[in-house]
Amino acid sequence: MRSDAEEKRQRILAAARRAFAEQGEDVTMARIARRAGVSTATVYRRFPTRNHLLADAYADQWNDCAAMHAAALRDPDPARALRELTRTLCAYQVRDRGFTRAYVDAVVAGHGLDHERQETERVIARLLEQAQSMGTVRADLTVADFRLLIAAHHGVVLAAGPDVAADSQRFLSLALRSLQP
Fold first, then answer.
1. Residues 35, 68: one domain?
2. How far apart are CA 89 and CA 95, in angstroms?
3. What is the tens place of the pLDDT at every residue in 150-165?
């Protein structure tokens, strides 16, 4: 890719990340184009769909998630891996609210980022199955319960007072106890 084309691409991605963080995923492609100083046609040439733009805008975060998934699957204690994965994902929600919106929409609501959502669900399902077979988490837990936990934590982050990290930790302490058999 030519250097000027790559520079425009990076401007579009930076503008998209800022816009998603401030206004959520519903921000128009035209608004992103204006923020990036390019035409809407330029945005669509590089990112044919909103899903493409979201995936590229949050590629680094999704790569982090993929690394977390791999580490969780290597852990010999699937219940611990599930708890740690949950803690890490929730810490991400506290640090990066723009990514959180995209993540919650994808994983919880089933909107966008199909590959990433399916991969997250595959990992959670495998960890749950392993932990349940060992009797280390409740037998009635499902991937849908994990979605609810992530959505509830998102609500905590949005409604938290001045110490969002402490509110997050308190919620997680309570929620993770509910996973125990």
1. no
2. 10
3. 889 988 988 888 898 9
